[in-house]
Amino acid sequence: MKTYTRAASLLGVLLLSGALAACGNESDSASQNKPADSEAVQNDNSSIEDPATAPAGDEENAADDKAAADDTKAEGDTAAGGTTGAGAKDGSQGAADKGTTDKGADKSGKGSETSAKADDEKPVDVSKQGKKGEGTDRPDTESFQIDGKNVTGKLQEGYGYALYALDGLEFDAERNRLSLKSNPDYYATVTPLAKGYSLASLKKEGTAELEAYGKASEVKGSDIPSALSFSRLFMTAEGDNGTGQFALWETPAKGYKLEIHLPSGSEADSFAQLAYASLSSLAD
What we know:
Layout: H1 2-46, H2 56-121, H3 126-129, E1 141-146, E2 149-157, E3 162-166, E4 169-172, E5 177-180, E6 183-192, H4 199-209, E7 217-218, E8 233-239, E9 242-250, E10 255-262, H5 268-279
Antiparallel strand pairs: 1-2, 2-3, 4-5, 5-6, 6-10, 7-8, 8-9, 9-10
């Protein structure tokens, strides 16, 4: 009995030792297989790429995409700039159109001045002024005092009147125009007035005619040029365009409207003195 018990105990110990050994082997096998499993897990995780750590090839693609996007934006900016440029061009064109309009206005103003000048130069209406040759029952020449010097004037025939044109002046009877030979921009016109003319209406007309030079003012007494001191009306205006003058000169039989144009320049004074003396010689 004791022998059997001892054998059974020994057998139990052997079985327990074998079980323990088997457990040890399984533990070792599990310990050896674990790194492989962990590495597999790491490999599986590393296959998932973060965009921020993409391979160089992908970075180049991303750079290309960014460059393309920048190019697209640049094209958009260029297009916008082109539109702005076109707008600026349109604005410039608008300014050019405005300049053209302004130029047209200036041209129109100049045209108005030219038209007014043309009215001064238009041929006379003979039926309203009388026959040419009247007022010529005087000597062919006459001497005038200008600044203490004797200046000769030659008798000129107009329609319904005559006057002496002093040396340096020329007279165009067809246009009632007395001008400076060396510079015809300096001139005076003579217009015979119909009977019944009004001093008030002439003042109004003179004011309007002189607007091209500036604000008209009436000159009286000793301020009127001495040669025309007997004028019943004498108006003047000064401005950038020079001096304009408007006067009423009367003879016993008729009245004459005188318009004198004196552009700014060195010849203004000399022409004025010659013109005043010639206009004062008006006779019917």
